[in-house]
Amino acid sequence: MKLSPENSDRLVLYDNFGSPCARRVRITLLEKGLAWDTQVIDLSRLEQRRPDYLRINPNGFVPALAHGARVVFESNVITEYLDDLFPQIPLYPSDPWQLAQVKMWQAAEAAMAKDYRTLMYQRLMGPMVRLTRTLPEALAAARRYTESPADLAWEERVWRLEVLSPEEEAQHEERLYRWLDRIERALEGREYLVGGLFSQAEISLYPRIAMYRFVGLSVGEARYPNVSRWLARLAPRASFAKTHTGEYKRVSRLAGTPVLPWIRRVLRKPEAERTRGERIGIKFLGGALRTVLKERPVAAGTLAQHRLIHVPSDGPTPPRNPPARCFTGPLTPEPRQAEMTLYGATFSPCTQRIALILAEKGLKAQWCEIDIARMEHKAKSFLSLNPNGEVPVLVHGERVIYENLLIAEYVDALFPDRGPKLLPRDAFGAAEVRMWLALEAGTHKEFRPLWYLHLVRPELQRRGFDRTSLAAGLPQDVHPAHRQWILDTFDGHPRFDTSAELARLLIHGKLERLEERLRSDPFLVGDRISYADFAWFTRAAQLEAMGVEADRERYPGLSRWRERVAQRPSVRAVMSGHGLG
Protein backbone atom coordinates (compact mmCIF):
# COMPACT_ATOMS: atom_id res chain seq x y z
CA MET A 1 0.00 0.00 0.00
CA LYS A 2 1.51 3.31 -1.05
CA LEU A 3 1.13 5.86 1.70
CA SER A 4 0.23 9.50 1.19
CA PRO A 5 3.20 11.93 1.35
CA GLU A 6 1.92 13.70 4.49
CA ASN A 7 1.68 10.40 6.41
CA SER A 8 5.20 10.63 7.85
CA ASP A 9 4.34 8.39 10.82
CA ARG A 10 3.19 5.58 8.50
CA LEU A 11 -0.20 5.08 10.15
CA VAL A 12 -2.83 2.95 8.38
CA LEU A 13 -6.31 2.69 9.90
CA TYR A 14 -8.56 -0.27 9.05
CA ASP A 15 -11.90 1.48 9.26
CA ASN A 16 -15.64 1.41 8.63
CA PHE A 17 -17.92 4.46 8.67
CA GLY A 18 -20.59 2.73 10.75
CA SER A 19 -18.30 1.59 13.55
CA PRO A 20 -18.33 3.83 16.65
CA CYS A 21 -15.13 2.07 17.74
CA ALA A 22 -13.36 3.11 14.55
CA ARG A 23 -14.76 6.61 14.83
CA ARG A 24 -13.21 7.16 18.27
CA VAL A 25 -9.81 6.35 16.75
CA ARG A 26 -10.40 8.84 13.91
CA ILE A 27 -11.37 11.50 16.48
CA THR A 28 -8.19 10.75 18.45
CA LEU A 29 -6.01 11.04 15.34
CA LEU A 30 -7.61 14.37 14.46
CA GLU A 31 -7.29 15.71 18.01
CA LYS A 32 -3.58 14.94 17.83
CA GLY A 33 -3.19 16.52 14.39
CA LEU A 34 -1.94 13.28 12.80
CA ALA A 35 -2.16 12.20 9.18
CA TRP A 36 -3.07 8.64 8.27
CA ASP A 37 -4.22 6.45 5.40
CA THR A 38 -7.41 4.40 5.45
CA GLN A 39 -8.37 0.90 4.36
CA VAL A 40 -12.16 0.48 4.49
CA ILE A 41 -13.44 -2.90 5.74
CA ASP A 42 -16.96 -3.82 4.56
CA LEU A 43 -18.76 -5.16 7.64
CA SER A 44 -21.97 -5.90 5.73
CA ARG A 45 -20.16 -8.67 3.82
CA LEU A 46 -18.10 -9.96 6.77
CA GLU A 47 -14.89 -8.64 5.24
CA GLN A 48 -13.61 -8.31 8.80
CA ARG A 49 -13.62 -12.12 8.98
CA ARG A 50 -11.45 -12.76 5.95
CA PRO A 51 -8.27 -14.69 6.84
CA ASP A 52 -5.80 -11.97 5.82
CA TYR A 53 -7.64 -9.40 7.96
CA LEU A 54 -7.71 -11.85 10.89
CA ARG A 55 -3.93 -11.82 10.71
CA ILE A 56 -4.19 -8.10 11.47
CA ASN A 57 -6.99 -8.25 14.05
CA PRO A 58 -7.66 -11.81 15.31
CA ASN A 59 -10.92 -10.67 16.92
CA GLY A 60 -12.28 -9.90 13.47
CA PHE A 61 -13.49 -6.37 14.28
CA VAL A 62 -12.62 -2.86 13.23
CA PRO A 63 -10.60 -0.86 13.90
CA ALA A 64 -6.98 -1.91 13.67
CA LEU A 65 -4.01 0.41 13.27
CA ALA A 66 -0.77 -0.29 11.44
CA HIS A 67 2.16 1.77 12.63
CA GLY A 68 5.00 0.90 10.31
CA ALA A 69 5.60 -2.81 10.83
CA ARG A 70 3.58 -2.89 14.09
CA VAL A 71 -0.09 -3.62 14.47
CA VAL A 72 -2.40 -2.51 17.28
CA PHE A 73 -6.04 -3.61 17.49
CA GLU A 74 -9.06 -2.79 19.72
CA SER A 75 -10.02 0.85 19.80
CA ASN A 76 -9.17 1.65 23.43
CA VAL A 77 -5.78 -0.03 23.06
CA ILE A 78 -5.12 2.03 19.92
CA THR A 79 -6.08 5.35 21.49
CA GLU A 80 -3.90 4.74 24.55
CA TYR A 81 -1.00 3.68 22.32
CA LEU A 82 -1.41 6.91 20.34
CA ASP A 83 -1.45 8.91 23.58
CA ASP A 84 1.85 7.30 24.60
CA LEU A 85 3.43 7.95 21.20
CA PHE A 86 2.16 11.50 20.71
CA PRO A 87 1.86 12.98 24.23
CA GLN A 88 2.00 16.64 23.17
CA ILE A 89 -1.81 16.77 23.19
CA PRO A 90 -2.74 14.31 25.98
CA LEU A 91 -6.23 12.82 25.96
CA TYR A 92 -5.74 10.43 28.90
CA PRO A 93 -5.20 12.08 32.33
CA SER A 94 -1.78 11.81 33.96
CA ASP A 95 -3.31 11.55 37.45
CA PRO A 96 -3.66 7.79 38.15
CA TRP A 97 -7.09 8.04 39.79
CA GLN A 98 -8.51 10.21 37.01
CA LEU A 99 -6.95 7.80 34.51
CA ALA A 100 -8.71 4.93 36.28
CA GLN A 101 -12.03 6.79 36.03
CA VAL A 102 -11.58 7.31 32.27
CA LYS A 103 -10.84 3.62 31.85
CA MET A 104 -13.85 2.61 33.92
CA TRP A 105 -16.02 4.67 31.59
CA GLN A 106 -14.39 2.83 28.69
CA ALA A 107 -15.12 -0.48 30.40
CA ALA A 108 -18.74 0.60 30.95
CA GLU A 109 -19.07 1.46 27.27
CA ALA A 110 -17.55 -1.88 26.27
CA ALA A 111 -20.06 -3.72 28.49
CA MET A 112 -22.94 -1.69 27.07
CA ALA A 113 -21.70 -2.31 23.51
CA LYS A 114 -22.59 -6.01 23.80
CA ASP A 115 -26.25 -5.02 24.01
CA TYR A 116 -25.91 -2.33 21.36
CA ARG A 117 -24.16 -4.60 18.86
CA THR A 118 -26.83 -7.30 18.84
CA LEU A 119 -29.63 -4.73 18.71
CA MET A 120 -27.88 -2.99 15.80
CA TYR A 121 -27.67 -6.25 13.83
CA GLN A 122 -31.32 -6.94 14.57
CA ARG A 123 -32.70 -3.49 13.81
CA LEU A 124 -30.28 -1.93 11.30
CA MET A 125 -27.82 -4.32 9.66
CA GLY A 126 -30.36 -7.11 9.27
CA PRO A 127 -32.99 -5.03 7.47
CA MET A 128 -30.34 -3.44 5.23
CA VAL A 129 -28.89 -6.79 4.22
CA ARG A 130 -32.38 -8.27 3.76
CA LEU A 131 -33.50 -5.37 1.56
CA THR A 132 -30.48 -5.40 -0.71
CA ARG A 133 -29.77 -9.15 -1.06
CA THR A 134 -31.52 -12.49 -1.12
CA LEU A 135 -30.28 -15.04 1.41
CA PRO A 136 -28.20 -16.91 -1.22
CA GLU A 137 -26.70 -13.56 -2.31
CA ALA A 138 -25.90 -12.59 1.28
CA LEU A 139 -24.22 -15.94 1.97
CA ALA A 140 -22.34 -15.81 -1.35
CA ALA A 141 -21.06 -12.33 -0.47
CA ALA A 142 -19.95 -13.56 2.95
CA ARG A 143 -18.21 -16.60 1.44
CA ARG A 144 -15.99 -14.28 -0.55
CA TYR A 145 -14.32 -13.49 2.75
CA THR A 146 -14.94 -16.41 5.12
CA GLU A 147 -15.80 -20.09 5.10
CA SER A 148 -16.19 -20.24 8.87
CA PRO A 149 -19.42 -22.11 9.74
CA ALA A 150 -19.91 -19.79 12.73
CA ASP A 151 -19.64 -16.67 10.56
CA LEU A 152 -21.99 -18.03 7.92
CA ALA A 153 -24.52 -19.13 10.55
CA TRP A 154 -24.38 -15.62 12.03
CA GLU A 155 -24.90 -14.02 8.60
CA GLU A 156 -27.99 -16.16 8.08
CA ARG A 157 -29.41 -15.15 11.47
CA VAL A 158 -28.82 -11.50 10.61
CA TRP A 159 -30.57 -11.87 7.23
CA ARG A 160 -33.52 -13.69 8.80
CA LEU A 161 -33.82 -10.99 11.51
CA GLU A 162 -33.38 -13.70 14.14
CA VAL A 163 -30.53 -12.16 16.13
CA LEU A 164 -32.99 -11.28 18.92
CA SER A 165 -36.57 -12.18 19.72
CA PRO A 166 -39.02 -9.29 20.33
CA GLU A 167 -38.75 -9.95 24.07
CA GLU A 168 -34.96 -9.84 23.93
CA GLU A 169 -35.09 -6.64 21.88
CA ALA A 170 -37.13 -5.02 24.65
CA GLN A 171 -34.64 -6.20 27.30
CA HIS A 172 -31.68 -4.83 25.32
CA GLU A 173 -33.45 -1.53 24.83
CA GLU A 174 -34.18 -1.26 28.55
CA ARG A 175 -30.54 -1.96 29.47
CA LEU A 176 -29.26 0.60 26.97
CA TYR A 177 -31.52 3.25 28.47
CA ARG A 178 -30.43 2.30 32.00
CA TRP A 179 -26.81 2.74 30.94
CA LEU A 180 -27.66 6.18 29.56
CA ASP A 181 -29.28 7.02 32.91
CA ARG A 182 -25.84 6.50 34.47
CA ILE A 183 -24.31 9.03 32.06
CA GLU A 184 -27.10 11.48 32.87
CA ARG A 185 -26.38 11.24 36.61
CA ALA A 186 -22.62 11.48 36.09
CA LEU A 187 -23.01 14.72 34.09
CA GLU A 188 -25.11 16.45 36.75
CA GLY A 189 -23.42 19.82 37.32
CA ARG A 190 -20.51 18.89 35.05
CA GLU A 191 -19.45 19.71 31.52
CA TYR A 192 -17.25 16.64 31.14
CA LEU A 193 -17.14 13.15 32.64
CA VAL A 194 -13.76 13.15 34.42
CA GLY A 195 -11.88 15.93 36.14
CA GLY A 196 -13.82 18.79 34.56
CA LEU A 197 -11.79 18.47 31.34
CA PHE A 198 -12.33 17.03 27.87
CA SER A 199 -10.70 13.59 27.78
CA GLN A 200 -10.72 10.21 26.14
CA ALA A 201 -13.88 9.46 28.14
CA GLU A 202 -15.80 11.82 25.84
CA ILE A 203 -14.16 10.37 22.74
CA SER A 204 -14.97 6.82 23.87
CA LEU A 205 -18.64 7.38 24.72
CA TYR A 206 -19.89 9.99 22.27
CA PRO A 207 -19.77 7.89 19.05
CA ARG A 208 -21.90 5.12 20.57
CA ILE A 209 -24.47 7.44 22.16
CA ALA A 210 -24.73 9.45 18.95
CA MET A 211 -25.73 6.22 17.19
CA TYR A 212 -28.58 5.37 19.55
CA ARG A 213 -30.97 6.66 16.91
CA PHE A 214 -29.59 4.02 14.50
CA VAL A 215 -31.34 1.36 16.61
CA GLY A 216 -34.50 3.35 17.24
CA LEU A 217 -33.56 4.79 20.66
CA SER A 218 -34.15 8.44 21.52
CA VAL A 219 -31.82 10.61 23.59
CA GLY A 220 -34.47 13.24 24.28
CA GLU A 221 -33.90 16.36 26.33
CA ALA A 222 -36.88 15.64 28.56
CA ARG A 223 -35.33 12.49 30.05
CA TYR A 224 -31.67 13.31 29.33
CA PRO A 225 -31.09 17.07 29.66
CA ASN A 226 -27.47 16.66 30.82
CA VAL A 227 -26.60 14.15 28.11
CA SER A 228 -28.31 16.30 25.49
CA ARG A 229 -26.25 19.35 26.48
CA TRP A 230 -23.10 17.22 26.53
CA LEU A 231 -23.80 15.89 23.03
CA ALA A 232 -24.56 19.40 21.75
CA ARG A 233 -21.32 20.72 23.27
CA LEU A 234 -19.21 18.01 21.61
CA ALA A 235 -20.86 17.80 18.19
CA PRO A 236 -19.38 21.04 16.74
CA ARG A 237 -15.86 20.19 17.93
CA ALA A 238 -13.74 19.89 14.76
CA SER A 239 -12.65 16.28 15.33
CA PHE A 240 -16.24 15.15 15.97
CA ALA A 241 -17.72 17.09 13.06
CA LYS A 242 -15.10 15.87 10.55
CA THR A 243 -15.77 12.22 11.41
CA HIS A 244 -19.43 12.53 10.34
CA THR A 245 -18.89 10.84 6.97
CA GLY A 246 -21.37 11.13 4.09
CA GLU A 247 -22.50 7.53 4.53
CA TYR A 248 -22.93 8.09 8.27
CA LYS A 249 -25.12 11.15 7.63
CA ARG A 250 -27.28 9.28 5.10
CA VAL A 251 -27.92 6.36 7.45
CA SER A 252 -28.50 8.79 10.32
CA ARG A 253 -31.19 10.62 8.31
CA LEU A 254 -32.79 7.30 7.38
CA ALA A 255 -32.75 6.18 11.03
CA GLY A 256 -34.58 9.38 12.00
CA THR A 257 -37.58 8.57 9.79
CA PRO A 258 -40.42 6.05 10.30
CA VAL A 259 -39.06 4.03 7.36
CA LEU A 260 -36.79 1.63 9.26
CA PRO A 261 -39.42 0.62 11.86
CA TRP A 262 -41.87 0.04 8.98
CA ILE A 263 -39.30 -2.08 7.13
CA ARG A 264 -38.67 -4.18 10.23
CA ARG A 265 -42.38 -4.78 10.78
CA VAL A 266 -42.97 -5.82 7.17
CA LEU A 267 -39.88 -8.03 6.90
CA ARG A 268 -40.92 -9.95 10.02
CA LYS A 269 -44.08 -11.04 8.18
CA PRO A 270 -44.05 -14.15 5.98
CA GLU A 271 -44.01 -12.95 2.36
CA ALA A 272 -47.41 -14.51 1.67
CA GLU A 273 -48.96 -12.33 4.39
CA ARG A 274 -47.66 -9.01 3.03
CA THR A 275 -50.03 -6.70 1.26
CA ARG A 276 -49.43 -5.66 -2.35
CA GLY A 277 -48.47 -2.19 -1.13
CA GLU A 278 -45.96 -3.67 1.32
CA ARG A 279 -44.36 -5.81 -1.38
CA ILE A 280 -44.05 -2.82 -3.72
CA GLY A 281 -42.69 -0.67 -0.92
CA ILE A 282 -40.05 -3.23 0.06
CA LYS A 283 -38.92 -3.64 -3.55
CA PHE A 284 -38.69 0.13 -4.06
CA LEU A 285 -36.84 0.73 -0.81
CA GLY A 286 -34.37 -2.06 -1.55
CA GLY A 287 -33.42 -0.41 -4.82
CA ALA A 288 -33.25 3.02 -3.20
CA LEU A 289 -31.13 1.73 -0.35
CA ARG A 290 -28.63 0.18 -2.73
CA THR A 291 -28.31 3.59 -4.39
CA VAL A 292 -28.11 5.55 -1.13
CA LEU A 293 -25.43 3.29 0.29
CA LYS A 294 -23.65 3.14 -3.07
CA GLU A 295 -23.28 -0.59 -2.74
CA ARG A 296 -20.23 -1.74 -4.63
CA PRO A 297 -20.05 -5.06 -6.47
CA VAL A 298 -18.62 -8.01 -4.59
CA ALA A 299 -14.99 -8.52 -5.49
CA ALA A 300 -12.84 -11.40 -4.33
CA GLY A 301 -9.77 -9.22 -4.07
CA THR A 302 -7.22 -9.44 -1.30
CA LEU A 303 -5.91 -7.32 1.48
CA ALA A 304 -2.39 -8.47 0.71
CA GLN A 305 -1.31 -5.06 -0.51
CA HIS A 306 -2.48 -3.62 2.81
CA ARG A 307 -0.80 -6.22 5.03
CA LEU A 308 1.55 -4.80 7.58
CA ILE A 309 4.61 -6.36 6.03
CA HIS A 310 3.94 -4.25 2.95
CA VAL A 311 3.67 -0.95 4.82
CA PRO A 312 6.97 0.85 4.14
CA SER A 313 9.38 0.52 7.06
CA ASP A 314 12.10 2.79 5.72
CA GLY A 315 10.45 6.13 6.54
CA PRO A 316 12.25 9.18 7.88
CA THR A 317 12.36 7.72 11.42
CA PRO A 318 11.66 4.24 12.79
CA PRO A 319 8.39 3.75 14.70
CA ARG A 320 8.72 5.27 18.12
CA ASN A 321 8.30 3.24 21.29
CA PRO A 322 8.53 5.64 24.26
CA PRO A 323 7.69 4.81 27.88
CA ALA A 324 4.00 4.25 28.55
CA ARG A 325 2.91 7.50 30.17
CA CYS A 326 0.20 5.96 32.33
CA PHE A 327 2.85 4.43 34.59
CA THR A 328 4.67 7.69 35.30
CA GLY A 329 2.00 9.84 36.95
CA PRO A 330 2.38 11.04 40.56
CA LEU A 331 1.14 8.65 43.21
CA THR A 332 0.33 9.91 46.68
CA PRO A 333 1.53 7.63 49.49
CA GLU A 334 -1.72 7.53 51.45
CA PRO A 335 -3.67 5.15 49.17
CA ARG A 336 -0.83 2.60 49.34
CA GLN A 337 -1.48 2.16 53.03
CA ALA A 338 -5.25 1.94 52.74
CA GLU A 339 -7.10 -1.31 53.33
CA MET A 340 -7.99 -3.45 50.30
CA THR A 341 -11.08 -5.58 49.81
CA LEU A 342 -11.48 -7.88 46.80
CA TYR A 343 -15.03 -8.77 45.79
CA GLY A 344 -15.00 -11.84 43.58
CA ALA A 345 -16.00 -15.42 42.92
CA THR A 346 -13.64 -18.27 43.75
CA PHE A 347 -14.02 -20.06 40.39
CA SER A 348 -14.19 -16.92 38.24
CA PRO A 349 -11.08 -16.68 36.00
CA CYS A 350 -11.26 -12.88 36.11
CA THR A 351 -11.19 -12.97 39.92
CA GLN A 352 -8.41 -15.57 39.99
CA ARG A 353 -6.09 -13.42 37.87
CA ILE A 354 -6.45 -10.46 40.26
CA ALA A 355 -5.78 -12.74 43.21
CA LEU A 356 -2.65 -13.85 41.34
CA ILE A 357 -1.27 -10.34 40.93
CA LEU A 358 -1.97 -9.52 44.58
CA ALA A 359 -0.07 -12.67 45.53
CA GLU A 360 2.77 -11.79 43.16
CA LYS A 361 3.01 -8.35 44.80
CA GLY A 362 2.78 -9.80 48.32
CA LEU A 363 -0.37 -7.76 49.00
CA LYS A 364 -3.18 -8.72 51.37
CA ALA A 365 -6.83 -8.00 50.71
CA GLN A 366 -9.94 -8.85 52.65
CA TRP A 367 -12.04 -11.33 50.70
CA CYS A 368 -15.76 -10.99 49.93
CA GLU A 369 -17.28 -13.91 48.05
CA ILE A 370 -19.93 -12.97 45.47
CA ASP A 371 -22.11 -15.96 44.62
CA ILE A 372 -22.32 -15.54 40.86
CA ALA A 373 -24.06 -18.92 40.51
CA ARG A 374 -27.01 -17.28 42.28
CA MET A 375 -26.58 -14.04 40.30
CA GLU A 376 -25.43 -11.98 43.30
CA HIS A 377 -23.29 -9.93 40.91
CA LYS A 378 -26.53 -8.72 39.28
CA ALA A 379 -28.17 -7.69 42.57
CA LYS A 380 -28.51 -4.00 43.40
CA SER A 381 -26.14 -4.25 46.37
CA PHE A 382 -23.31 -5.33 44.08
CA LEU A 383 -24.33 -3.04 41.22
CA SER A 384 -23.71 -0.14 43.60
CA LEU A 385 -20.04 -1.18 43.48
CA ASN A 386 -19.82 -2.13 39.81
CA PRO A 387 -22.77 -1.02 37.70
CA ASN A 388 -21.50 -3.33 34.93
CA GLY A 389 -22.43 -6.25 37.16
CA GLU A 390 -19.19 -8.22 36.83
CA VAL A 391 -16.54 -9.52 39.26
CA PRO A 392 -13.93 -8.68 40.40
CA VAL A 393 -14.07 -5.33 42.17
CA LEU A 394 -11.20 -3.92 44.22
CA VAL A 395 -12.01 -1.42 46.97
CA HIS A 396 -8.89 0.42 48.06
CA GLY A 397 -9.62 2.91 50.79
CA GLU A 398 -12.34 5.11 49.32
CA ARG A 399 -11.54 4.12 45.73
CA VAL A 400 -13.63 1.54 43.90
CA ILE A 401 -11.97 0.01 40.85
CA TYR A 402 -13.51 -2.54 38.50
CA GLU A 403 -12.61 -4.31 35.24
CA ASN A 404 -9.79 -6.77 35.70
CA LEU A 405 -7.15 -5.22 33.43
CA LEU A 406 -7.70 -1.82 35.01
CA ILE A 407 -7.31 -3.31 38.50
CA ALA A 408 -4.06 -4.94 37.37
CA GLU A 409 -2.73 -1.68 35.91
CA TYR A 410 -3.73 0.24 39.04
CA VAL A 411 -2.03 -2.21 41.41
CA ASP A 412 1.08 -2.45 39.25
CA ALA A 413 1.40 1.35 39.07
CA LEU A 414 0.73 1.86 42.77
CA PHE A 415 3.20 -0.81 43.92
CA PRO A 416 6.03 -0.77 41.34
CA ASP A 417 8.57 -1.69 44.02
CA ARG A 418 6.83 -4.93 45.02
CA GLY A 419 7.13 -8.12 43.02
CA PRO A 420 7.52 -8.37 39.26
CA LYS A 421 6.43 -5.67 36.83
CA LEU A 422 3.23 -7.11 35.42
CA LEU A 423 2.85 -4.62 32.57
CA PRO A 424 5.73 -3.49 30.34
CA ARG A 425 6.85 0.11 30.70
CA ASP A 426 7.20 0.80 26.97
CA ALA A 427 4.28 1.92 24.81
CA PHE A 428 4.15 -1.04 22.45
CA GLY A 429 4.81 -3.60 25.20
CA ALA A 430 1.90 -2.16 27.20
CA ALA A 431 -0.24 -2.24 24.04
CA GLU A 432 0.68 -5.90 23.48
CA VAL A 433 -0.55 -6.87 26.96
CA ARG A 434 -3.79 -4.98 26.36
CA MET A 435 -4.24 -6.65 22.96
CA TRP A 436 -3.92 -10.11 24.52
CA LEU A 437 -6.62 -9.08 27.00
CA ALA A 438 -8.72 -7.73 24.12
CA LEU A 439 -8.32 -11.06 22.32
CA GLU A 440 -9.71 -12.85 25.37
CA ALA A 441 -12.53 -10.32 25.77
CA GLY A 442 -13.34 -10.75 22.07
CA THR A 443 -14.29 -14.37 22.80
CA HIS A 444 -16.55 -13.45 25.74
CA LYS A 445 -19.75 -14.36 23.93
CA GLU A 446 -18.36 -17.86 23.25
CA PHE A 447 -16.74 -18.42 26.65
CA ARG A 448 -19.64 -17.15 28.75
CA PRO A 449 -22.42 -19.64 27.85
CA LEU A 450 -19.97 -22.57 27.85
CA TRP A 451 -18.64 -21.47 31.24
CA TYR A 452 -22.11 -21.17 32.76
CA LEU A 453 -23.19 -24.49 31.26
CA HIS A 454 -20.14 -26.54 32.30
CA LEU A 455 -18.99 -24.86 35.52
CA VAL A 456 -21.86 -22.88 37.04
CA ARG A 457 -24.61 -25.41 36.31
CA PRO A 458 -22.72 -28.34 37.92
CA GLU A 459 -21.95 -26.11 40.91
CA LEU A 460 -25.67 -25.44 41.40
CA GLN A 461 -26.45 -29.14 41.03
CA ARG A 462 -23.70 -30.01 43.53
CA ARG A 463 -25.36 -27.71 46.06
CA GLY A 464 -28.63 -29.58 45.64
CA PHE A 465 -30.67 -26.92 43.84
CA ASP A 466 -33.60 -27.79 41.63
CA ARG A 467 -35.24 -25.27 39.34
CA THR A 468 -37.84 -24.20 41.91
CA SER A 469 -35.39 -23.75 44.78
CA LEU A 470 -32.96 -21.89 42.49
CA ALA A 471 -35.66 -19.45 41.41
CA ALA A 472 -36.57 -18.88 45.06
CA GLY A 473 -32.93 -18.49 46.08
CA LEU A 474 -32.02 -15.70 43.66
CA PRO A 475 -31.82 -12.16 45.05
CA GLN A 476 -35.25 -10.57 44.75
CA ASP A 477 -33.98 -7.50 42.89
CA VAL A 478 -32.17 -9.39 40.11
CA HIS A 479 -33.49 -8.25 36.74
CA PRO A 480 -35.90 -10.72 35.06
CA ALA A 481 -33.54 -11.12 32.08
CA HIS A 482 -30.70 -12.31 34.33
CA ARG A 483 -33.11 -14.49 36.30
CA GLN A 484 -34.22 -16.12 33.04
CA TRP A 485 -30.61 -16.58 31.93
CA ILE A 486 -29.61 -18.62 34.98
CA LEU A 487 -32.81 -20.67 34.90
CA ASP A 488 -32.27 -21.46 31.20
CA THR A 489 -28.69 -22.42 32.05
CA PHE A 490 -29.90 -24.69 34.83
CA ASP A 491 -32.19 -26.35 32.27
CA GLY A 492 -29.12 -26.87 30.07
CA HIS A 493 -30.02 -24.26 27.46
CA PRO A 494 -27.97 -21.06 27.83
CA ARG A 495 -28.23 -18.71 24.89
CA PHE A 496 -25.50 -19.01 22.24
CA ASP A 497 -25.05 -16.64 19.31
CA THR A 498 -24.85 -19.76 17.15
CA SER A 499 -24.28 -23.08 18.97
CA ALA A 500 -22.00 -24.70 21.54
CA GLU A 501 -20.12 -26.51 18.78
CA LEU A 502 -19.46 -23.33 16.82
CA ALA A 503 -18.51 -21.47 20.00
CA ARG A 504 -15.79 -24.06 20.62
CA LEU A 505 -14.63 -23.67 17.03
CA LEU A 506 -14.18 -19.93 17.50
CA ILE A 507 -12.30 -20.45 20.78
CA HIS A 508 -9.90 -22.81 19.00
CA GLY A 509 -9.21 -20.03 16.51
CA LYS A 510 -8.02 -17.81 19.38
CA LEU A 511 -5.98 -20.65 20.90
CA GLU A 512 -4.17 -21.04 17.60
CA ARG A 513 -3.09 -17.41 17.92
CA LEU A 514 -1.64 -18.16 21.37
CA GLU A 515 0.04 -21.28 20.05
CA GLU A 516 1.67 -19.31 17.25
CA ARG A 517 3.30 -17.01 19.81
CA LEU A 518 4.15 -19.64 22.43
CA ARG A 519 5.83 -22.13 20.12
CA SER A 520 8.87 -19.86 20.02
CA ASP A 521 8.44 -17.51 23.01
CA PRO A 522 8.32 -18.44 26.71
CA PHE A 523 5.65 -15.85 27.51
CA LEU A 524 3.04 -13.85 25.62
CA VAL A 525 4.88 -10.51 25.79
CA GLY A 526 8.67 -10.51 25.80
CA ASP A 527 10.76 -12.95 27.81
CA ARG A 528 9.16 -12.24 31.20
CA ILE A 529 5.79 -13.10 32.66
CA SER A 530 3.17 -10.35 32.42
CA TYR A 531 -0.46 -9.85 33.26
CA ALA A 532 -1.34 -11.22 29.81
CA ASP A 533 0.01 -14.62 30.91
CA PHE A 534 -1.97 -14.63 34.16
CA ALA A 535 -5.16 -13.59 32.35
CA TRP A 536 -4.97 -16.27 29.67
CA PHE A 537 -3.72 -18.90 32.13
CA THR A 538 -6.81 -18.56 34.33
CA ARG A 539 -8.99 -18.90 31.23
CA ALA A 540 -6.98 -21.82 29.79
CA ALA A 541 -7.19 -23.68 33.11
CA GLN A 542 -10.94 -24.14 32.53
CA LEU A 543 -10.89 -25.07 28.82
CA GLU A 544 -11.18 -28.82 29.27
CA ALA A 545 -14.06 -28.41 31.71
CA MET A 546 -15.89 -26.47 28.99
CA GLY A 547 -15.35 -29.22 26.42
CA VAL A 548 -12.54 -27.40 24.59
CA GLU A 549 -9.71 -29.90 24.10
CA ALA A 550 -6.29 -28.21 24.26
CA ASP A 551 -4.05 -31.28 24.12
CA ARG A 552 -0.27 -31.21 23.76
CA GLU A 553 -0.28 -32.72 20.28
CA ARG A 554 -2.35 -29.86 18.87
CA TYR A 555 -0.96 -27.11 21.13
CA PRO A 556 2.61 -28.01 22.20
CA GLY A 557 3.68 -24.42 22.86
CA LEU A 558 0.51 -23.64 24.79
CA SER A 559 0.97 -26.81 26.88
CA ARG A 560 4.57 -25.98 27.79
CA TRP A 561 3.53 -22.43 28.71
CA ARG A 562 0.72 -23.68 30.95
CA GLU A 563 3.17 -25.94 32.79
CA ARG A 564 5.66 -23.08 33.14
CA VAL A 565 3.12 -20.67 34.62
CA ALA A 566 1.60 -23.35 36.85
CA GLN A 567 4.93 -23.80 38.66
CA ARG A 568 4.81 -20.34 40.24
CA PRO A 569 3.98 -20.45 43.98
CA SER A 570 1.29 -17.76 43.60
CA VAL A 571 -0.42 -19.82 40.90
CA ARG A 572 -0.34 -23.01 42.94
CA ALA A 573 -1.87 -21.19 45.92
CA VAL A 574 -4.59 -19.33 44.06
CA MET A 575 -5.64 -22.07 41.64
CA SER A 576 -5.93 -24.54 44.51
CA GLY A 577 -8.25 -22.12 46.27
CA HIS A 578 -5.85 -21.37 49.12
CA GLY A 579 -5.03 -17.92 47.77
CA LEU A 580 -8.67 -16.87 47.71
CA GLY A 581 -10.84 -16.10 50.70
Describe the protein.
With 581 residues, the chain is mainly alpha-helical. The chain has 3 domains: 11-94, Glutaredoxin, CATH 3.40.30.10; 96-292, Glutathione S-transferase Yfyf (Class Pi), Chain A, domain 2 (Up-down Bundle), CATH 1.20.1050; 331-581, Glutathione S-transferase Yfyf (Class Pi), Chain A, domain 2, CATH 1.20.1050. The chain contains 25 helices and 8 strands. The protein has helices at residues 20-31, 51-54, 75-85, 96-132, 135-143, 149-159, 166-186, 200-210, 225-234, 238-242, 246-255, 259-268, 276-292, 334-337, 349-360, 380-383, 404-414, 427-441, 444-462, 467-473, 480-490, 500-518, 531-540, 556-566, 569-575; strands at residues 11-15, 37-40, 64-67, 70-73, 340-344, 366-369, 393-396, 399-402. The strands form 2 sheets. It has a 4-stranded mixed β-sheet with strand order 2-1-3-4. It has a 4-stranded mixed β-sheet with strand order 6-5-7-8. Helix 1 packs parallel to helix 3 (75-85) and helix 22 crosses helix 24 (556-566). It is globular. The N and C termini lie far apart (54 Å).
| Mean pLDDT over the full residue set | 88
CATH class term of the largest domain = Mainly Alpha
Low-pLDDT residue intervals, each spanning 5 or more residues:
295-316, 327-331
The DSSP helix count reads: 25
**Spatial ordering of strands, largest sheet:** 2-1-3-4
Question: Structural class, from secondary structure content?
Answer: mainly alpha
Q: How many domains is the backbone divided into?
A: 3
Number of strands: 8
Main sheet: strands, sense, barrel? 4 strands, mixed
What percent strand? 5-15%
Rg, alpha carbons: 24 Å
CATH topology grouping of the largest domain: Glutathione S-transferase Yfyf (Class Pi), Chain A, domain 2
CATH architecture of the largest domain: Up-down Bundle
Query: What is the distance, rounded to the nearest whole angstrom, between the alpha carbons of the first and last residues?
Result: 54 Å
Shape: globular
Helix content: 40-55%
